[in-house]
Design a protein that fits this description.
This protein has five helices and no strands. The protein is an all-alpha fold.
Length: 125
């Protein structure tokens, strides 16, 4: 069971990310993520290191990671989140996945990990 402070911290991290990107155009979503990330970088898995990771790829990876955490808490199989053609929906997908994760009442450690993942994604943008 997560404590209210950690849940509030996750919501705040998601709000920072969404406020930063919600006004982006499709062209801005297609820009590559920052190349100057430290070795720890964003904890989002990339299928092929030879392919440049776009901002949309990074945020979609975050959405999938949040969905996977919610599935883990609910003890159900992981499912792929639909990748929408409209990149402008990504901020809404982040909000929905954060809400879904918190509704599943994850342990505090998982909420802290999710917050760190959202913060890392925000730094990478």
């Amino acid at each position: 069971m997560s404590d209210p402070n950690s849940a509030a911290a996750l919501r705040a991290a998601a709000d920072r990310l969404v406020n930063r990107v919600s006004h982006w155009t499709p062209a801005r979503w297609e820009r590559p993520v920052r190349a100057d990330l430290d070795a720890s970088g964003p904890p989002i898995a990339v299928s092929s290191p030879a392919v440049a990771l776009t901002r949309a790829d990074l945020v979609f990876g975050l959405v999938q990671e949040l969905a996977d955490l919610a599935a883990q808490v609910e003890a159900r199989p992981r499912r792929d989140v639909p990748r929408l053609d409209n990149k402008l929906a990504l901020p809404d997908q982040v909000r929905v996945m954060v809400a879904d994760l918190l509704a599943a009442d994850p342990p505090t450690e998982m909420v802290h990990a999710a917050t760190a993942t959202v913060d890392a994604a925000t730094r990478a943008l």
